[in-house]
Design a protein that fits this description.
iron; about 10% strand; six-stranded mixed sheet; 14 helices; alpha+beta; Cytochrome p450; three-stranded antiparallel sheet; about 400 residues; about 50% helix; metal-binding
């Protein structure tokens, strides 16, 4: 079918939040690049095949910064002129990523691992002491990643709940009005400004102090970039991992034999985590839109300068030409070049931290709860709708 057929409506509706929309498989076969209309009526190119998605993610001719224009198509709220590293192009992106990248290296994250293991162990132990059923979301999936990223930044424990509330609203696709999103963003920014002032008066051994020094001593970071860094790290470090823990646990609950195997063979957990990341629909198909800055060809289709392109990572991770039995969960999959953390210069800076948090969370569940399972019928779970990352409101487990 030619790519210039009538635009589809995006986002697609899935039969279940744990499953990709049926449209992805059909598009990969028949219309790997096709026009789609967003809720705000902007038009984008949907890219669904693995090779094409990977090309878009790596090609510098696709700009992330261009989506900060007031008239640019977007699915998530992005402030015009945003200084977030999430929507920067080189050389600014390169400068800022180098500045903060050392905090998220494998070596540094490995030093954090004992603290993450302590937190996860204590949280799951509290769930066990409460007795079944226990809510995985409130007991582990939410508090673990938000505690870790807040401790890294230096956010006081008593303020963690505020950050959760504000970022829940800010990452809304349709669950909250634009006025609510704007108000939450203003509250978060005001709080970060006050926290930065506190750190200037009393420096600490945390990431925020490091960033303040970069601004004040080396002039390598502006105040606006500093604030945007704090916002981005809080949102990315919390929401994605919370949803991935929820999806991974629920996926395992659907496969009791897999939980039994992992309980006996915990050495298989790292490979299992990679497969759970590939298989997960936690991102909901809401990819990072890019704007072409030059004419080019993707998968035999001409993309013009100024066109918006949306790489569908969840679709790419189910591409049958790359992953054998792509629709099946194979926890011992040896070749797994999934794109769950992106690709290219915008490959998730916190990828290693996210892997460790997910691995440690599942390990703690297997260690302390054993062969856990869902405490209610799956169709009784209430899912959060209209958000960038999907997860159930609660996820009650028994063991």
């Amino acid at each position: 079918m030619p790519p210039d057929q009538a635009p589809l409506r995006f986002p697609f509706r899935s039969k279940h939040p744990m499953l990709p929309p049926d449209e992805y498989a059909l598009l990969r076969k028949e219309r790997p690049l096709c026009r789609a209309s967003l809720p705000n009526e902007h038009s984008v190119w949907l890219v669904t095949r693995y090779a094409d998605v990977r090309q878009v993610l790596a090609d510098p001719r696709f700009s992330r910064e261009a989506i900060t224009r007031p008239d640019a198509p977007r699915l998530l709220p992005v402030a015009a002129g945003s200084k977030s590293i999430f929507v920067m192009d080189p050389p600014e992106h390169t400068r800022l990523r180098k500045l903060v990248g050392r905090v998220f290296t494998t070596r540094h994250v490995d030093r954090l691992r004992p603290r993450i293991e302590h937190l996860a162990g204590a949280m799951v132990s509290a769930m066990a002491e409460q007795g079944p059923p226990a809510d995985l979301i409130a007991g582990l999936a939410q508090p673990l990643p938000i505690t870790v990223i807040c401790e890294m930044l230096g956010v006081p424990h008593q303020d963690h709940l505020l950050f959760r509330e504000w970022t829940d609203v800010m990452l809304s696709v349709s669950a909250h009005s634009s006025e609510e999103v704007t108000a939450a963003a203003a509250k978060l920014r005001r709080y970060l400004g006050e926290l930065i002032a506190d750190r200037q008066r009393a420096p600490a051994d945390d990431l925020l102090t490091t960033l303040i020094k970069a601004r004040d001593e080396s002039d390598s970071l502006s105040t606006e970039e500093l604030l945007a860094f704090g916002e981005t790290l809080l949102m990315a470090g919390y929401h994605a991992t919370t949803s991935e823990i929820a999806h991974a646990a629920l996926t395992l609950c659907e496969r009791p034999e897999t939980i039994r195997r992992l309980h006996r063979h915990r050495d298989e957990l790292p490979a299992a985590v990679e497969e759970l990341l590939r298989y997960s629909q936690a991102g909901g198909g809401v990819g990072p839109i890019r704007i072409a800055v030059a004419d080019m060809e993707i998968g035999g289709t001409t993309i013009r300068a100024g066109d918006a392109v949306l790489p569908c990572i969840n679709s790419a991770n189910r591409d049958e030409t790359v992953f054998s039995n792509a629709e099946d969960l194979e926890l011992t999959r040896s070749q797994n070049p999934h794109l769950a953390f992106g690709h290219g210069i915008h490959h998730c800076i916190g990828a290693q931290l996210g892997r460790v948090e997910l691995t440690v969370a599942l390990d703690a569940l297997l260690e302390r709860l054993g062969q856990f399972t869902l405490a209610v019928p799956p169709d009784e779970l209430e899912w959060k709708a209209g958000r960038a990352f999907t997860r159930p409101e609660t996820l009650p487990l028994r063991w």
